[in-house]
Every structure is written in structure tokens, then in C-alpha cells.
């Protein structure tokens, strides 16, 4: 558009400048909406951080109140470093005992003799046994490498293999059991002579028959077993009857019968023969000596044809059998004809040529009692609540120490305190108020179109938190302080009622009052470690307890804190989610207004330019007419 000037008030002003100024005045609502959006987006970020901090505190609190919280975790160590490592549960009793490692459990290691490296072995099959497991290897034929690969692929769960090259012409193949322990020693059946040609075993022998030992049961020495379940056993009319045909058991009776001490070999089983049909399932058991005391094992067994099989070797291998437990839970009498201890022969029919290391059990002494186990690791059935690993033989007895491990509980509480303080500090910062500041959003002109958030507002907002006066955050701060300073019922003797009892407070005696009022928690580490070592269950109950004994945690610092935090973090209708949703809706509404107003400004600017064009054209015409009249009037006067 060409630049024209207007008379009067507009004389000397460029039309484009005037239009630009008018459009800028009309644009002021957009600036207000953009400022509101900027403010809302900052609030959304703040609410997002509130959610992160409350969720973090929620997570740390749940860790404290869970049943697996490690307040009472105990550790296992030895007076000589490196002998033993392990962990102890809450059930373990603190204290010391004497420990002696006599012999470590070892793997079974075998070696073949030197053979031609280029030997070709025939196809066929052989079987590898270790413990209760066996694997049959089908070999397609080939050299030592092919044999080694076949063993790895088909029997790798039982045995490891390697080939050692002695010189350019000869090699040796070695085998090592995967598991330690005497029971897991390697045995072989080699009907096709493959392992013999490989130099690993000798001649394959024919399998031998099982050993059977008929046990003598004297019913006159029988004693009642489990009277609470088999109620008629004590009645004189229902007692066990023994004849030449065997033992008669009447319904709802059970007895334990002593026998001559007999060793239970590996894979041994008790074979019980009855007369007649007999029940489909019969309960029986045995008594055996283990670690200086008599143990009992009683369980249901299924019938196979007319016999019942009880796997004694699986339960008490290499232990002494001292008694047989028989019972009748059926409605009709049972006649037991015989009980036989059957010991199968070793499955291996081909003896190894060379043993590099025998398979051995772990042998240890605890307080003078000798104990054997198959493995050196994860021994969890010797001391109650304790699992340990053995690492080396001791030259003399060492002390096994079981004591409370306060490190885990202390770390867990420190993480909780840090999460609590992070939330408290952030909440106070975003709700802080500058006492001398004056927050106002009024300008000299409060016209609805021209109104804007003043610089004074933002100046004061920089001194105050963006959520100053937000009731939900102020309530959160107050609730956190109340929870941390409340008393709680002690459900156990010598329990703790307040956080200060375990070394957690808002400040030591004599601390600055303003800092105490801030509500931030501090830890007296020495005191916390002391109470965790002496009374870990009391610490845990302070955070979560069950005063009603209804198996539901209802009291404690952690339980109350979770109740306070729950409404803030609920997914659908939580306080934070609702606040963010409202702010996002406000931003979306302002964006819509901005878009609509920008469209209006384009039309508004076009109209202004058109109007000023008409005005300038009119002014131009009037100026031309005025000049014409002035010239004609001048000529007329001159003529007179």
C-alpha cells in the first residue's frame, strides 16, 4: 500500500504504523493467554515432580512395611576369614558355635589311558549314571572328538568331558561329574565296548541280582503310632495280631515295630507284601538314625500288583534302619505277609580304568557333631534358619558367628528418610510465600480485552512458590509432620512408640527452632544401629504392626503414611492427576482462544487497511476539490 498522510490528528503518521499499533492493541488478550499457558505448564511440571516424589516415598515406605523388610536379617561369618559364608533368616538364633571343616565335597574325576589320536570308534550306545540319574548316549561312530561331542550333547547334565593331547600320536579323554558328593560318582554300562576302546573303562560285566533281606517284625514289641490320627490303636480288642502268616492290622490303627539295626544302602527300598487285595494306598514309614538321633519318616505309598514300595534309600541312604511303621486307615483289616529290604546292585557294569579324584562328601563338625552333605554350597538343613557355603578345610575348629545384620535395615531406613525429606523440601519450596510481596493481577485499565498479568505478579512469583496457597500441598506437609511426630502402640515388649526412640527426629535437643519447624528428619546413626542390633522386630513394628492380631497391618508410621499418600497417586482420580488434567484443559482452552483470536486479527487488520484506504482516497479527492476551488476563486478575485 502506498504511504499517504492524513490531516488533523493523523497528519505526519504513516497509515501502516497506525494499523500496526491498532492490531497490537487488539493482540493483548493473546499475550495474556500465552502467559497463562506458560504459568500452567510450569505448574504441570511442578505437579509432575510432586507425583514423582510422593511415588518414591510410597515405594520406600512399602519396602519398610513389607513382610520381607530386612530389619531382622542375620549374617553368618567365621572367626577365620574365608572358611564359610552364608545368610541367616529371622528364625535363626543369634550366637556362636564351634565349626570344623574336615573334608570338602569333591567331584568324581576319571581319566582314560593313552590311545591313538586317530582311533575310529564303532557305533553303538552306552549309559552314564550319576546319583539317581542316568543318560544313554547313542554314538554314530567316529573319533575322540565325535565321542566327546556326543557325551556333551546327550549326557552333559551328568558329566563334563575333555581331550588332552599327549603328543602328536596319542591323546587321553577325561570325564568329571557335574555334581559333587559320593552318591554322584560316575558309573558306566558299555555293552558295545565303545568306552573300553576309548581307554576309559574295562570289560563290561553282566549285571548281578539285587540283594534282598527279609526283615523280622515282632508284633509283641509294637508301640502305638500317632494316636491322634489312629484312635483305636490303644484298645485292647484292636491291637496288632501276629501269626505265622504275618501281621494283622485292624482298621484305624498304626504301630511302630523295632527291628535289628540294618544299614540302608543307596537306591534301597522296602518291599511290603500283603495278603489279598489291600487298599490302593497304604501309609507306612520307617525309623532311622541320623546325626545322633532317631528320625521318623511316614508317608502314603501306592500299590504295585500285590506289593507296596517305600523308597528308603532316597530318604536315608547310608543310615541305620531301626524300625518299621505300619498302619491301616482302611475300613477292613490288612494282613502284611512280609517286609523286605531290597538293595539293587550298582547300575555300572564297566569299571573306570583310572580315577584321578574320588567323589567325596563334605564332612563337617558343628559343636562336635559330625555331619556329611553332598555339596559345599547352599547347606540349609543343618542349622535352623541358616544357609551357608563352605570354602576350605580348617586346621582346627573355628567359631561360627550368627548375628544381626543391621546394614540392610539401616540402609532401608536412610532411603526412606531421604525420600521423606525430598518431598517435604520440595513441597515447602513450591508453596512458600514472600511475606512482604504483593501479588496482584490488576493493571491501570482492567478492561477484559486488554487485561494482562502484570510484571509485579511475576516479580512476586519469583519470590513465592508457584503453588503458594495450594491447600492440597499444604495439607500434605501438615500430614507428613503429624505422622512423623505421632505416638504409635507398641505391640511387643520393649517396643518403640515414636521415631525418636530409634534415632530419627527433626533435630537434637537444643537445635535451632526454625530448622526443627521445617520438619526435615535427621538420623542419629549410632542410636539407629544400636536399636537395629538389639531389637530389630521392635523397629519394624514401629513402621507396621498388627495390634488386633488379625494378620493385617493396621498401625505404624509406614501404614499411616501410605494412607496419606494414597489419594495423591491414585491413577484415575488422584489429586495430582486431577490437578494436571485441569491445567491441561486450561492450556487447551487458551490455545483454542489464541487460534480463534489470531484468525480474527487477520480479518481485523484487513478491515483496518481497507478503511484507511477509503479514508485516504476520500482525503485525496477532497484535497483535489479544495485546490480546484482555491485556484478558481483566486482567478475570480484577480479579474475584479
UniProtKB/TrEMBL annotation:
Matches recorded under Pfam families: FliD_C (PF07195), FliD_N (PF02465)
Keyword Coiled coil: yes
GO biological process terms held by the UniProt record: bacterial-type flagellum-dependent cell motility; cell adhesion
The keyword Coiled coil is annotated on this UniProt entry: yes
GO cellular component: bacterial-type flagellum filament cap; bacterial-type flagellum hook; periplasmic flagellum
Subcellular location(s) per record: Bacterial flagellum; Periplasm; Periplasmic flagellum
Top-level taxon in the UniProt lineage: Bacteria
Record keywords: Bacterial flagellum, Cell projection, Cilium, Coiled coil, Flagellum, Periplasm
Classification via InterPro entries: FliD (IPR040026), FliD_C (IPR010809), FliD_N (IPR003481)
Domain Flagellar hook-associated protein 2 N-terminal: 12-108
Domain Flagellar hook-associated protein 2 C-terminal: start-end pairs: 359-623
Assembly: Homopentamer.
Function description: Required for morphogenesis and for the elongation of the flagellar filament by facilitating polymerization of the flagellin monomers at the tip of growing filament. Forms a capping structure, which prevents flagellin subunits (transported through the central channel of the flagellum) from leaking out without polymerization at the distal end.
UniProt similarity note: Belongs to the FliD family.
Designated name of the protein: Flagellar hook-associated protein 2
Organism: Leptospira ellinghausenii
Amino acid at each position: 500500500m502506498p504511504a499517504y498522510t492524513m490531516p488533523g490528528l493523523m497528519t505526519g503518521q504513516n497509515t501502516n504504523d497506525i494499523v500496526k499499533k491498532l492490531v497490537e492493541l487488539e493482540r493483548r488478550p493473546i499475550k495474556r493467554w500465552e502467559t497463562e499457558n506458560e504459568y500452567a505448564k510450569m505448574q504441570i511440571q511442578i505437579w509432575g515432580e510432586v507425583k514423582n516424589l510422593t511415588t518414591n516415598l510410597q515405594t520406600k515406605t512399602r519396602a519398610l512395611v513389607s513382610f520381607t523388610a530386612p530389619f531382622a536379617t542375620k549374617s553368618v561369618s567365621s572367626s577365620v576369614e574365608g572358611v564359610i559364608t552364608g545368610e541367616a533368616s529371622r528364625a535363626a538364633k543369634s550366637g556362636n558355635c564351634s565349626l570344623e571343616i574336615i573334608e570338602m565335597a569333591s567331584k568324581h574325576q576319571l581319566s582314560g589311558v593313552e590311545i591313538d589320536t586317530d582311533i575310529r570308534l564303532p557305533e553303538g550306545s552306552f549309559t552314564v549314571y550319576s546319583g539317581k540319574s542316568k543318560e544313554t548316549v547313542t554314538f554314530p561312530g567316529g573319533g575322540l572328538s565325535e565321542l566327546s561331542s556326543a557325551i556333551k550333547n546327550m549326557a552333559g547334565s551328568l558329566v563334563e568331558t575333555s581331550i588332552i593331547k599327549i603328543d602328536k600320536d596319542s591323546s587321553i579323554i577325561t570325564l568329571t561329574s557335574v555334581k559333587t558328593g559320593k552318591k554322584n560318582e560316575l558309573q558306566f554300562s558299555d555293552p558295545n565296548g565303545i568306552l573300553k576302546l576309548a581307554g576309559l573303562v574295562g570289560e563290561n560285566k553282566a549285571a548281578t541280582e539285587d540283594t534282598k533281606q527279609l526283615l523280622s517284625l515282632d508284633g509283641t514289641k509294637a508301640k502305638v503310632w500317632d494316636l491322634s490320627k489312629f484312635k483305636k490303636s490303644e484298645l485292647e480288642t484292636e491291637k496288632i495280631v501276629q501269626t505265622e502268616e504275618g501281621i494283622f492290622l485292624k482298621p484305624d490303627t498304626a504301630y511302630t515295630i523295632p527291628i535289628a539295626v540294618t544299614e540302608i544302602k543307596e537306591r534301597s527300598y522296602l518291599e511290603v507284601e500283603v495278603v489279598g487285595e489291600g487298599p490302593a494306598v497304604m501309609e507306612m514309614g520307617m525309623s532311622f538314625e541320623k546325626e545322633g538321633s532317631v528320625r521318623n519318616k511316614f508317608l502314603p505309598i501306592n500299590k504295585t500288583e500285590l506289593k507296596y514300595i517305600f523308597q528308603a534309600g532316597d530318604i536315608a541312604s547310608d543310615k541305620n534302619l531301626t524300625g518299621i511303621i505300619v498302619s491301616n486307615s482302611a475300613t477292613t483289616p490288612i494282613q502284611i505277609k512280609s517286609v523286605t529290604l531290597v538293595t539293587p546292585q550298582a547300575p555300572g557294569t564297566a569299571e573306570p580304568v583310572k580315577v584321578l579324584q574320588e567323589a567325596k562328601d563334605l564332612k563337617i563338625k558343628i559343636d562336635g557333631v559330625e555331619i556329611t552333605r553332598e555339596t559345599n554350597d547352599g547347606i540349609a538343613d543343618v542349622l535352623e534358619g541358616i544357609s551357608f557355603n563352605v570354602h576350605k578345610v580348617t586346621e582346627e575348629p573355628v567359631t561360627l558367628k550368627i548375628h544381626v545384620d543391621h546394614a540392610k535395615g539401616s540402609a532401608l531406613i536412610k532411603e526412606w528418610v531421604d525420600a521423606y525429606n525430598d518431598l517435604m523440601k520440595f513441597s515447602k519450596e513450591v508453596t512458600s510465600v514472600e511475606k512482604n510481596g504483593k501479588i496482584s493481577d490488576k493493571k491501570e485499565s482492567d478492561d477484559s480485552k486488554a487485561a494482562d498479568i502484570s510484571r509485579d505478579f511475576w516479580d512476586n512469583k519469583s519470590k513465592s512458590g508457584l503453588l503458594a496457597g495450594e491447600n492440597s500441598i499444604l495439607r500434605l506437609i501438615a500430614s507428613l509432620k503429624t505422622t512423623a511426630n505421632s505416638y504409635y502402640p507398641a505391640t511387643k515388649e520393649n517396643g518403640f512408640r515414636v521415631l525418636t526412640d530409634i534415632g530419627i527426629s527433626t533435630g537434637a535437643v537444643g537445635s535451632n527452632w526454625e530448622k526443627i519447624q521445617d520438619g526435615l528428619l535427621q538420623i542419629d546413626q549410632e542410636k539407629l544401629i544400636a536399636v537395629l542390633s538389639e531389637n530389630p522386630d521392635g523397629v519394624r513394628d514401629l513402621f507396621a504392626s498388627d495390634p488386633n492380631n488379625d494378620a493385617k497391618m493396621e498401625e505404624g508410621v509406614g501404614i499411616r503414611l501410605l494412607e496419606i499418600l494414597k489419594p495423591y497417586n491414585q491413577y484415575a482420580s488422584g489429586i495430582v492427576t486431577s490437578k494436571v488434567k485441569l491445567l491441561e484443559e486450561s492450556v487447551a482452552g487458551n490455545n483454542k482462544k489464541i487460534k480463534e483470536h489470531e484468525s480474527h486479527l487477520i480479518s481485523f487488520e484487513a478491515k483496518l487497511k481497507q478503511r484507511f484506504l477509503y479514508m485516504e482516497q476520500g482525503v485525496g479527492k477532497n484535497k483535489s476539490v479544495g485546490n480546484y476551488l482555491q485556484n478558481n476563486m483566486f482567478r475570480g478575485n484577480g479579474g475584479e
